[in-house]
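During the reporting period the student researcher (J.K.) took over the structure-prediction task from the postdoctoral fellow and processed the backlog of single-chain submissions. One of the processed entries is reproduced below for the supervisory committee.
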Amino acid sequence: MEMMSASVESWGDRPRPARGLLADAWRDFRRNRAAVAGAAVLAVVVLSAWVGPVASPYRFDEQELAEQLEPPSLKHPFGTDIAGRDLLTRVLFGGRVSLLVGLAGTLVSLVIGVTWGAVAGYAGGRIDNYMMRFVDLLYSLPFMFFVILLVTLFGRSLLLLFVALGAVQWLTMSRIVRGQILTLKTQPFVEAARALGVRNRRIVFNHLVPNLLGPVIVYATLTVPVIMLEEAFLSFLGLGVSPPATSWGLLAAEGAASISIVRTNWWLIVFPGAALSLTLLCLNFLGDGLRDGLDPRHARRR
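J.K. obtained the following structure tokens:
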């Protein structure tokens, strides 16, 4: 019995295994109620955008001239537009395009920004100086004017919109990655890789870049709403998504064009604008939660 009790006591005295970084990040993320609520609402918005148009009894481009500009009702919960199209279906379908533009543009910006910043930070010296001065030069240019110029010269298409919006959002990411690389490249594991003859390209993209997962994810969640807002601005100017496709920004532009002194048609602006605002708010809450959960300084205070 003494041996058994001694073994039990020794087992109880053993240190518990330390939790992983992801487990701690997930715990801190769940404590942020705004971030959890934002993620849940965002999931509902994404699911509705992809499933809603399929389940709707109306097509997003189906016109019924006898039902023009009808206010919200049981038949049309969001009302109809100037062509008699069901606004709820168009808002759901427009969510597909707006979310796709935000995600694709963010992916383009991350690929360019991470690659540029990682190469500049690891190379150092003159290469780093020249590359970052180029970034400073681009910062001085009016980004929206550059996007408008590209769209005007090469035509309106979703692919061009992805590239144009993503190509002007990578500058901040490159600076973030460069600063992290400057710190990480002096770590012992990098020196060990060099001593083993590992190529610089492999060190950068196989060893250094994976250690930047936290800042990259956080910045990505904060870049999506910025690109979505820029797409809405371009669509409002008539330079974004081309009909018959639609987006939240294009729907708001069409609603603004139908406003008159005699009739306001408030639902044409309120519902697309509310969908866009709600999504942007949820993305910002999600980004704040991920930032707190993946911040190394916050991890040291756990």
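The committee noted the following: Residues 87-123 form the longest helix (37 residues).
J.K. will present the remaining backlog at the next meeting.
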